[in-house]
Amino acid sequence: MRIHLQNFKKTFGDTTVIEDMNLTVEDGEMIALLGPSGCGKSTTLFAISGIHKINGGTLHFGDKDVTNLPAQERSVGVVFQNYALYPHMSVAQNIGFPLKVQKLKTAEINARVGEIAELVQIGNLLDRKPMQLSGGQQQRVALARALIRKPDVLLLDEPLANLDAKLRLEMRSEIRRLQRETGITAILVTHDQIEAMSMCDRIALMKDGRIEQISTPTQMYESPASHYVASFLGNPP
Ligand code: ADP
Ligand code: MG
Question: Where on the tree of life does the source sit, at the highest rank (predicted)?
């Protein structure tokens, strides 16, 4: 499902964090919101998910204007850096929770949980508690939970930041595989250009609440649009 932000604006009190942002993510595309800490990546993602209300502009999913829809009525799955799993629930209960909230029948929930757990390859871990899982496995649970309602849009906020280097590599290709297999339209927030480059079709490089350049990774490296872009890409974290 195509995502379209027009003249997006977000303020906190007197501070403008997102200023007049325009962005289109094509159906089935995975795009990175890349930029230094504090430039407004998470704020943008939270506004798209409906967790934050925007102060100006519009948001469309396909032809549908979702600007004023509350988060639970938007067809969105979100994965955060810290996974935010429910510690007292089993893996199966964690994944199925969004369906339980919707009051689906238990048999239906179980079938769907089994299916999605296979997709993210944790079918053998359904009875465990989150604490009994590795970081990578926890991240797979968070992905499964984000996908269980079959959303049109997947939003990922620094999903690999808490993983060690080896797992980070593994989960990079795993998230990309899932995105391709499901055909879901996805936005990945990251401050890591290597992550953005290796996982996404296009990169939107942000500066102070605006998009400085948007292009394929190759185009961005070959022809940076400004000194800022060149300097950001030239100084990997
Ligand atoms: P990023 O994800 O790119 O690191 P954020 O979107 O989290 O950046 O933050 C962008 C700016 O907005 C920062 O200056 C941050 O301090 C500010 N900000 C974020 N959330 C809030 C909030 N709830 N209240 C006030 N300021 C906020
Ligand atoms: Mg952030």
Answer: Bacteria
